[in-house]
Amino acid sequence: MILDNRSMIKKIDKSGMLNLLEKFAVQCMDADSIKISPVVAQEYDCIVWAGMGGSAIAGDILKQVVERNCSIPMFVHRNYGLPKFVSNKSLVLAISYSGDTEETLDACTEAVKRKATVWTLSSGGKLEKFAKNNKIPHAKIPAGQPPRCSLGYLFFPAANLFFMLGYIKKIVVEKIAEIADACVKKYGVDAVDNNLAKEFARKIHNKNAVIYSGDFLLPVAIRWKTQFAENSKHMVSVNVFPEMNHNEIMAWNFPIQYVENSIVLFLYDRNDHQRTKLRMELTADILKKKSILVEKLESDESEPVQRMFSLLLLGDWVSFYSALLNGVDPTEIKEISLLKKELTSTNQ
Known about the structure:
Blueprint: H1 6-12, H2 17-22, H3 24-32, E1 47-50, H4 54-67, E2 74-77, E3 91-95, H5 102-113, E4 117-122, H6 125-133, E5 138-140, H7 151-164, H8 173-187, H9 196-204, E6 208-213, H10 218-232, E7 236-240, H11 256-260, E8 262-268, H12 274-289, E9 293-298, H13 304-326, H14 334-346
Parallel strand pairs: 1-2, 1-3, 3-4, 4-5, 6-7, 6-8, 8-9
Helix pairs in contact: 3-7, 3-8, 4-7, 4-10, 8-13, 9-13, 10-13
């Protein structure tokens, strides 16, 4: 079977994503040691994280941590410009792995116009130059790998900034690294027996996959979706409880072919509202009665952010194996590259 054979995997995984997955713990430790320039600690009216793709997911995770530790509202902005409420009293983080993400650059430019406090992070590119020219604190991270494989670099420097500002408690990077190493042992190529990641990849293969969660694990559900999109080239949909119960539950009737060929994954967290947990259980039962394949996942890690990373990394491994089953290079992003080329040509 290809999922157990490194030589066969290498023929499909031509750009070496497996190596990046296996070394994620090292990335986290490296990211935590990156020196950052802090911003002035003051009474900000809001925090805005401007980023796209993998850069935005890091913000989604930190938003959940901030909301549980800080009274200042935080928003993740995936767009050009900035919301009207952003002002000279706001803190804006412009995050772009490449430093050339045009939406993030546009948001950063707008933040400077409004005299907001700005902090930037990238591996270089236009964002680094913009920060230097405008005397904006900038954290530089290593370049040379796909943004979606750089979550540690996108997450820990910003987490350390928030800790310095007193918004969150210190996130123990060693714990996240331990989880990453444990995932390699449990879900890696050499784990042939009882490998949950390989098992889920096989179950999801050629099926309509849907992921449901409560609000806390929504960033994890979105990460699963985006990893399947880029790595596996496989469509996955996501929704959140309790909202799902007020509309989407009725959609599990048609098209019949879609319903019959679906798998639904429920992501649970111990801190979900009790009524949310009940809703998820009842919904799972309803779907099972329609002969829909239902799977439930929950992390037993002690700390909330550790539980997020535990389930998130499982999704990374599942999407990698799904790419292999689909016979596609998990790193290749032909359509994204084509779109960027076309967008660039319109600016000339």
